[in-house]
Amino acid sequence: VEQGIGQQHYSQESDKSAIELCQRLGVPYHTFDIKTAYGFSIDDLHEMNAAIKQGKLNPGQLQYRGICSFCGMIKRYTINKFAKDHGFTRVATGHNLTDESVSLIINFFNMNLNFLGRSHPLIDSNIDALVPRVKPLFYITEQEIVLYAYYAQINHVSAECIYANESPNLEIKRIFQDLDTERKGLFLSMMRQYQKKMLPLFKPEKGLVKPRALTFCASCGMAASSNKCSFCRNKSLLLARVNDLKKGGKNNLPEASNPSNSEHAHVDNDYTGPEEDEFD
Length: 280
Ligand SMILES: [Zn+2]
Hints:
Blueprint: H1 9-25, H2 34-38, H3 42-53, H4 67-85, E1 91-92, H5 97-109, H6 113-116, E2 122-123, E3 133-134, H7 142-151, H8 170-182, H9 186-198, E4 215-216, E5 223-224, H10 230-246
Parallel strand pairs: 1-3
Antiparallel strand pairs: 2-3, 4-5
């Protein structure tokens, strides 16, 4: 997914590595450019966020979210929809043990039971619009993956995303990553013990978490928790704000005449890390 990060630079480097690996393995690949498809890149949204923060742009009905939150929502939606549209039966993602452990810890800090109940490499789906997901690297740390890539001579982008330092979770990740380096195997034993002892408590029949009632998005037909999915609720609002900014921000269209005002704007605020807003 070409997200348009770092004036294309960061995204293009990532794409190049992924394409190279696909070619080496003889695996067909598809690329999807979000700017072409949706009218805005992640760089555009980052600029929009900065203008909103500085009071130079009226957010209207758009609820402010950090850039990683917007990026994650767009990526999850795009990959799931692409898989669905092309009849793929599984989506495999690169989430690793480091991401998953940090995510588990942060979800524990927030006592976010919904996300605590999903800490598993297989995320099945009983709804047709949601393609089941697998995480083949779930039990392998980020450092081990980098080491493997090095010895297998797999070209990879080792730099963090240029916006990573804006994620509220990066500092927490660094602290726990250091701890895992200090006490080797901490993440793996925590995850194994968690899955053995805690995860069974989240089975629906235990009643600890209510299963989310899912329906279909009226706009795109994908899974949603209300009549529109999170992506469709945000897409036109984001495009309107990005266009406002190009036309000069606050001095532009008065909010009342902005057509996007009629849209229902609902944003889930419970930011919990990589697995936020799983279904939408
Ligand atoms: Zn939708």
